[in-house]
Amino acid sequence: MIRYLPLTAILVGIVFGVFRFYKLDRIQKLLLLHLLVAFVVELAAAQMAIEGNSNLWLLHYYVNEEYLIFALCFYWGFENSILAKYILYSIPFFIGFSLINSVFIQDLNSFNSFARGLESLLLIVFSILFLIQNNGSQELEKIRPMHIVSCALLLYFSAGIITFFSVNFLIEKIGAYAVNLLWTVHLYLCMIYYLIYTFSFWNYRRIQKY
Fold this sequence. Notes:
This protein is mainly alpha-helical. It has helices spanning 5-19, 26-51, 56-77, 82-105, 113-133, 140-174, 176-202.
């Protein structure tokens, strides 16, 4: 049952996003697209787990879509800033690194901790920089969606980065039970993350167009 907590939270976000679709700006619509992809991936992963099949290969594809979506959101959020250009350049760099990692370093049957860890570091940095740059901004209505998403990303990836970097090592050193316990905590964190994420759709009335 715990396995379906993130899936439930994602579904709540999709319902809110679809219900208010015509009031959303381009960043929020992109975030809604990501929730739809996340729902399909989570559903497929849960089904594979029930059937006793490995679902790790899904993350090798999902991490690229996830980074692409959030990098574009920050690119628009940092619009007219020199940082926006570097964020845009980081997209092909990251996807290239992820593909090389999947082919030559961590195959599709293992957790892609290097790509997941790098994604976490980059999104943590982008989130911190965005919150610092827009702290005390008078244009709160304009930046509210990215404020909320940045907080969600900062919470989720800061807490999850230890898991992403060390899960393969932990399986070898402390056994599957301890790792399963760690993933259970991670599932609760995912649920909180997606619920905070959903709040960016709820506040559409105070949001200006980007």
